[in-house]
Design a protein that fits this description.
The protein is built from 3 helices and 29 strands. By secondary structure, the protein is mostly beta strands. It has 3 domains: about 120 residues, no CATH class; about 120 residues, Jelly Rolls (Sandwich), CATH 2.60.120; about 120 residues, Galactose-binding domain-like (Jelly Rolls, Sandwich), CATH 2.60.120.260. It is elongated, with a radius of gyration of 32 Å.
């Protein structure tokens, strides 16, 4: 058979095995999208999607099926709703430094009319435990209390490196702020920053806890919290409920279960560290994580030589994962996922997010449906149509016969 004939035969064979773009791309699950009424909508991902989708969620596709079996792909932007935080440093003048029997005073003048809600202090001394007062005034004569006996702390040694010197308070608008550090010796203030923090809180959901156990490792002087969730989900915050009548600051580590292997000696569990820091009564109790996905977490609190903390319970939260979707044509749309080898899509709308409407309606997802292996998502491959199959076979046989006849004649 000559080269031309071979190429024709290969083309026919390739055409026969071609599958339309709407065919299943190896997805394992689909969920019907309900409530489409406009071009733009938002869609919050359900918890059970995370265990079956790719780790980066790059295998998510929104595919629509029209009556004539055409397939449409709706573009989307994936967003983790973590909130917005804007930190502005407000200019000021340090107009007074005095020492009094009560301690050391620092007076700041704010030239404008800006509100502030935080003062960040930096000291030369690395080990201290002080109380401070903060007052505000419009005329430097009448002073109003903002904070009283507020504790600031710094510990630096071979075991601990912890500093808490941020004064946080409700937004206040004064021309003058006066800080009293209740310490006889000069505290060695290196820098003060007056801050206006503006925030828009993120959106969270609390995860259901399957089991929670507290144990004490006396050898390592640790309180260990074992938390099992009912689902495999991304976690952004762990909030332990600690019942204590005294202040504390303890090193804390968080690990999540990566995998487990059954061996001759039983199950072996592989944990990965996802947080290392301090747990302190001076700060908000939440431990902030960078969205690790897991269903089992281990929190280890180092008590050192202190009395173990009494932990009553724990709250596990995760940020909402939200898709902003654009629908160009009417169709029956499904959310497909479960092909962990599929690369993340690149849609044009990701470059023009400023043009997306602000107020868009949410959609609902139907129940998850598993897709059997090799089943198409939207349309059938060419070979499942028997008429196409017989036509193709007849064409191939005729082509082979014609070329054989030509060769015999030669």
């Amino acid at each position: 058979m000559n080269t031309k004939a071979s190429l024709l035969l290969i083309w026919f064979l390739g055409f026969g095995t071609f599958q339309s773009p709407g065919q299943n791309q190896g997805f394992s699950y689909k969920r019907k999208i309900e409530g489409i009424s406009d071009s733009w909508h938002k869609l919050v991902l359900e918890n059970d999607i995370f265990i079956n989708a790719a780790n980066d969620l790059g295998d998510i596709r929104i595919l629509g099926i029209k009556d004539e079996k055409d397939t449409l792909e709706a573009p989307y932007i994936l967003k983790i709703v973590t909130g917005k935080y804007v930190k502005s440093e407000i200019p000021f003048k340090l107009i007074n430094q005095t020492t009094h029997e009560k301690g050391n005073y620092y007076t700041f003048e704010v030239p404008g009319s800006e509100e502030i809600n935080q003062i960040i202090l930096d000291f030369e001394e690395q080990n201290f435990d002080w109380k401070v007062d903060l007052e505000g005034s419009q005329d430097i004569n009448d002073w109003f209390t903002i904070l009283q006996d507020y504790r600031i702390l710094s510990i630096k040694n071979a075991v601990t490196d912890y500093t808490f010197t941020n004064l946080t308070f409700p937004a206040a608008k004064f021309k003058y702020f006066r800080l009293l550090i209740k310490e006889d010796e000069k505290p060695g203030l290196l820098k003060a920053s007056l801050i206006k923090n503006e925030s828009e809180p993120g959106k969270y959901r609390n995860y259901e806890i399957k089991s929670f156990e507290v144990s004490e490792n006396e050898e390592h002087k640790q309180t260990i919290l074992d938390v099992h969730l009912t689902e495999f989900v991304p976690v952004s915050m762990i909030i332990p409920d600690i019942e204590q009548d005294f202040d504390f600051y303890r090193p804390v580590k968080v690990q999540c279960l990566v995998d487990s292997v059954e061996g001759p000696d039983g199950w072996k569990y592989n944990y990965q560290e996802v947080f290392s820091g301090m747990l302190s009564s001076l700060e908000e109790p939440g431990i902030i994580l960078n969205q690790p996905k897991a269903s089992v977490f281990k929190i280890m609190i180092d008590n050192q030589n202190n009395t173990p903390l009494k932990v009553n319970s724990v709250v596990i939260r995760g940020n909402l994962y939200e898709l902003t979707c654009r629908f160009s044509e009417p169709a029956t749309y499904f959310l497909f996922y479960g092909n962990k080898g599929l690369a993340a899509p690149d849609y044009d709308i990701g470059y023009f997010s400023d043009k997306i409407p602000v107020d868009i309606l949410p959609l609902k997802l139907g129940a998850a449906e598993s897709i059997p292996l090799n089943q198409e998502a939207t349309s059938q491959p060419l070979f499942t149509n028997k008429l196409w199959l017989w036509t193709l076979m007849i064409l191939i046989i005729a082509l082979l016969g014609w070329f054989s006849f030509k060769m015999i004649k030669k």
